[in-house]
Amino acid sequence: MSALSDPTAADRPDATTTCPLCDRGEYGEQDLYVHLQVNHRKSTLSEALVDALDVAPTAAER
Ligand SMILES: [Zn+2]
């Protein structure tokens, strides 16, 4: 999950990262985008993003 919260990752065009969901590869920004589109379902991406943001299950429980 570290790649999602790394503020410097997007600022370096030549930087590579592993996929935050499956921990594979060394992707540039565009390559990672394509990898996510092709290899991961939208539901998986959504769950991972919500997970990373640490959103409470329901607003009423806050
Ligand atoms: Zn992946």
Supply database-style keywords:
binds zinc ion; mainly alpha; elongated; 62 residues
Could you describe the 3D structure shown?
It contains three helices and no strands. The chain has 62 residues and is mainly α. It has one domain (2-53). The longest helix is centred in the C-terminal third of the chain and has 12 residues, at 42-53. 0% of the residues are buried. Residues 19, 21-22, 24, 35, 39-40 line the site of zinc ion (ZN). Zinc ion binds at residues 19, 21-22, 24, 35, 39-40.
**Radius of gyration based on Cα positions:** 13 Å
Hetero groups in this structure are:
zinc ion
Helix content: 40-55%
For the biggest sheet, the summary is:
none
The overall number of domains is: 1
- Content of β-strand: under 5%
Mean pLDDT: 81
Q: What is the terminal separation in angstroms?
A: 24 Å
Structural class by secondary-structure content? mainly alpha
* Shape verdict: elongated
Number of helices: 3
Output the helix-strand order: HHH
The unreliable regions are: none
Total strand segments: 0
